[in-house]
Design brief:
The protein is an alpha+beta fold and 138 residues long. The chain contains six helices and two strands, in the order H-H-E-E-H-H-H-H. A hairpin with a 2-residue loop joins strand 1 and strand 2. Helix 4 crosses helix 6.
């Protein structure tokens, strides 16, 4: 009986491996999705613009946001910057202004650059900042 169970398990394992391989064939996005998964694990979000975005003579095709490198100092500096502008936020995870400024720090650019982006790009980037805040336990 034990020998039959081992044969059945081996057959099941072989079938699962064949199925996994079949699912991977023809998937041209596999290397890209693997890269994205690795970057997400490191706290990096790479935003790809559908149409290159220009700001102050600089052209952006992609833009990397290193959320994983942010510290508590960055969070407090964003809060202080907003207070200096007489803007007070009760819940950072729902404030587009806070998310924009945090994302700008993660990309080492000015928040005005993100504010000037087309709405589609602005929303995707600020949504990534919100997801980062929520995933870090905020």
């Amino acid at each position: 009986m034990q020998n039959d169970n081992n044969k059945n398990n081996a057959a099941t394992d072989a079938a699962e491996t064949a199925t996994e391989g079949a699912n991977d064939t023809g998937n041209t996005n596999a290397p890209e999705s693997n890269k994205n998964a690795k970057e997400a694990a490191k706290g990096i979000y790479t935003h790809k613009f559908n149409t290159p975005f220009e700001h102050d003579g600089k052209k952006f095709v992609t833009l990397d946001f290193h959320f994983g490198k942010l510290t508590g100092h960055d969070m407090v500096k964003v809060e202080q910057e907003m207070q200096d502008e007489n803007v007070y936020v009760i819940a950072s995870e729902v404030s587009k202004t806070f998310q924009c400024k945090l994302a700008a720090r993660a990309a080492s650019i000015g928040s005005d650059v993100i504010m000037d982006m087309p709405l589609h790009d602005f929303n995707k980037i600020t949504n990534e900042a919100r997801a980062f805040l929520l995933n870090t336990g905020y």
